Model the fold of this input.
Amino acid sequence: MAAFWRAAAEGSNISDDGAGVARLLKRDPCALLAAAEERFASLGGRRGDALVPDRNGLAHHARRAAGYAPEPQWTRRVKPLTG
Done:
């Protein structure tokens, strides 16, 4: 992950504190998602999955740009367990 982080920063001064993460995400919004996918795949993961609220257009755009697509055969079902 650290090697990916250095490569994604491409020589920029990006640190792993909150401000550094924010700068990297501003410069490359898909960097953190790509790092997570790389880590997941290295652990044997075969399929990424993302829950994105219907009204969050920016998140839908980012996920599509990263190769995620809706699967019409799946619908999320939820049941509140409190309240």
Q: What stands out?
A: Residues 2-65 form one domain.
